[in-house]
Amino acid sequence: PGKFGGVSFKLSYYNEYKSYLRMHDGVSSKTLILESVRASSGVYGLPDDASFTYGTAGFRARAEVLPPVAYRMGLLAALRAKCLGSTIGVVITASHNPPQDNGLKIVEPQGEMLIQQWEPYATLLSNTYSGSLVEVLEQLSERLSVSLTCRRGDIIIARDTRASGPDLVRAFVAGATALECKVTDVGMCTTPQLHWIVKQTNIRRPNSLNEYYQSFSDAFIELLGKDIAPLSIKVDCANGVGAQSITKFREYLSSHLEIEVYNDGSHGNLNENCGADFVKVDCSP
């Protein structure tokens, strides 16, 4: 599919070659990892006019230019996970942006945003052309005192409902697994849910979405008080991933809160004439 349609075949072929090399002595783990990066990065070449900056919201851009960035963020996230020896998260979303956009941002082990000190590293890697990527990656690992061959840490990834999401997940996974970092794909969920899953994983508590709905619903009911008459709210889900979440909450809160869902994605486009940003910018109810 699309420009990067041959990726799966090419990476599969290289992984078979890497397995063959592993069966023979004399090839170091670091050499294999760097060769893996060299092979897979060629699939995800940057455009000639590449210019990306990692900010508070991570990366945001037109979706068609992001697969090479997603690949490089797979490398960076693997480095971060190895550095911390913990589970970190990545969410593929562009929040209030139009559906043709997408983005990526990294989540720290306790559910925080990526620390500011690592934002320049994300920007550096995202703008490094494939021919220089192995060299820059080696320099970065030495500067951060992170061994490329260590087996510490892993990554949880999630995405929103944008059609470009699956391609960006594949590109990200190609980068992370080139550094032999495990990636768990939890599919579609909201950004707060991904933050919660990552934190729960690191404190070794139940981390399923069913547990998420149950714990927050219990907390809401306790805060509300059992003797309060049922309340009613209306929720504009902007035709996005929040619709499936709020619909699920309805099952847990039916006796305490009546939830009317609007713009649930069954028709209409993501963020088009709906959602919080539309109300704010257009001052329209």
Describe it for me?
The radius of gyration is 21 Å and the shape is globular. The protein is α/β, with parallel strands linked by helices and 285 residues long. The strands form two sheets. It has a five-stranded mixed beta sheet, with helices on both faces. The chain has a two-stranded parallel ribbon with strand order 6-7. The chain starts with 6 loop residues before the first helix and ends with a helix. The chain has ten helices and seven strands.
Compute the average pLDDT: 89
Side by side, the strands of the main sheet go 1-3-2-4-5
- The level of helicity is 40-55%
Shape category: globular
Enumerate the spans where pLDDT stays under 50 for 5 or more consecutive residues: 1-6
Q: How many E strands? A: 7
As a percent range, the share of strand residues is: 5-15%
User: Cα distance, first to last residue?
Assistant: 40 Å
Largest sheet: 5 strands, mixed
What does the radius of gyration come to?
21 Å
Order of helices and strands: HHEHEEHHEHEHHEHEH
Q: Based on helices, strands and strand pairing, what is the structural class?
A: alpha/beta
